[in-house]
Amino acid sequence: MSTAAQPVVDPEAIDPYALDREGLEALVAELGQPRYRADQLHAWLVRGVDDPGEMTDLPTGLRERLVARFTPTRPELVAHTVADDRHTHKLLLRFPDGEAIETVLMLYPQRATVCISTQAGCAMGCPFCATGQAGFRRQLTAGEVVRQVVVADAALRSGAIGEQDLPEGAPSRVTNVVFMGMGEPLANLPATLATVRWLHDPDGFNLSARGITVSTVGLVPGITKLAELGLPVTLAVSLHAATDPLRDDLVPVNRQHPLAEVEAAMAAYRRVTNRRVSIEWCLIGDVNDDPEQADNLAAIARRLRAHINVIPMNPTPGVRWKEPSRTRTQAFVERVRRRGAQITLRDTRGRDADAACGQLLAAYTLGAGTRLPAAVGAADRVDAGLALTSLGPQPTEGPAAPDTPGATPDTPAEAT
Ligand code: SF4
Questions:
Q1: How many whole angstroms separate alpha carbon 168 and alpha carbon 211?
Q2: Which of 117, 128, 184, 311 for a ligand 1 pocket mutation test, highest count of atoms within 8 Å of Cβ?
Q3: What's the pLDDT score for residue 21?
């Protein structure tokens, strides 16, 4: 793996999970050890062991020196909620500085998917998202991002998430990772790229690039950098609106990177990686579920040959918007499909586990953070528009049933 943004050898202390292979090799070289010691260290870290005292195949002297050098950033498990017949596990992890983030483990027959966070909070300010409303607090380090996968994997392998929680045929190891938790992964590019390399490392987690999905609201420079990584990682772009005026409000960063620019970046990503891109669409009742949006979305998806994942909005405390009615959801999906685009209505994993982005954290703490200037006021504008359109009769139906799951990526309710 190449170097990440994290310090390779910090003179004071090191979070071992912030070190990539080259970082570990540099460290053991500095300590006068042969290179294969880095392989041994790496193997322990993959197994979730960060205490050098437990790394029994290392010489005692090296273990003692590593104990002095390592300061693992171990998160504390603050909350653990379950849903979907115990097949969805949502973890609230708090780091030593007090910042807390969410990680979700979703178990399916044949795969175990972890949804990870890349930032504490988020500056993108999408007004329908609990995380966006709380604002940005800080970037996570590569070590803190990798650690979320390690924690979930260790829970599976150790039996902490026991057999009773596993669907038949579910693997006992993490097989897929989606960067769809709190934060915008491409706004924390060094940690995101370092984590992708860590997960893909054949001597590490050895995840297939296709089993890794990076989701973004459309940060074009980041999409270009991700393409330069040279791995066919799945790119999922959260459009949520298919016209610029609506997207300016639903995804405020659209003012910096409007739809045409995002679409061009997605097309380039597909060309470079030869990997189909995904479009994520959080369907919000009476906001982005109308025929005009459906037609524009279908046109974009057809041009990109992209797959659309529709996720009905998860009602979020403090956000007035609602999930779409069953009738409007089905009409939207059918209209897009009739116009020749591939679309899947996703299930909303973890609704009863506070599993929408930021909801579990919001239940524990409400912190003020910063938001992109463009995001400020977006909620008010969309709310004002909604007030006008919601004067008519209100639907009384529940949400639509999902299509059969199958298309990647796995998503815990709405996410980035
Ligand atoms: S939806 Fe994603 S990008 Fe938008 S505010 Fe929430 S976490 Fe940030």
A1: 20
A2: 184
A3: 85
Instruction: Identify the CA nearest to 150 among candidates 226, 39, 72, 98.
Output: 72
Residue range 185-229, pLDDT digits in tens: 999 999 999 999 999 988 888 999 999 999 999 999 999 999 999
Which residue, 272, 279, 381, 370, is CA-closest to 321? Answer: 381
Taking the C-alpha atoms of residue 186 and residue 128, their distance in angstroms, rounded to an integer, is 20
Tokens of 224: 């270009």
pTM for this one? 0.84
Q: Is 316 in the pocket of ligand 1 (CB under 6 A)?
A: no
- Classified as helix, coil or strand, 114 is strand
In this structure, the number of other CB atoms found within 10 A of the CB of residue 404 comes to 8
Strands 176-179 and 212-216: parallel
Tens of pLDDT along 167-190?
Answer: 777 788 999 999 999 999 999 999
**3-class DSSP state of 157:** helix
Structural domains of the chain, ranges and CATH numbers in brackets: 16-69 (1.10.150.530), 76-389 (3.20.20.70)
Q: How far is the CA of 113 from the centre of ligand 1 (A)?
A: 20
pLDDT tens per residue, range 286-324: 999 999 999 999 999 999 999 999 999 877 666 678 889
Give the CA angle between residues 47, 143, 90 to the nearest 5°. Answer: 75
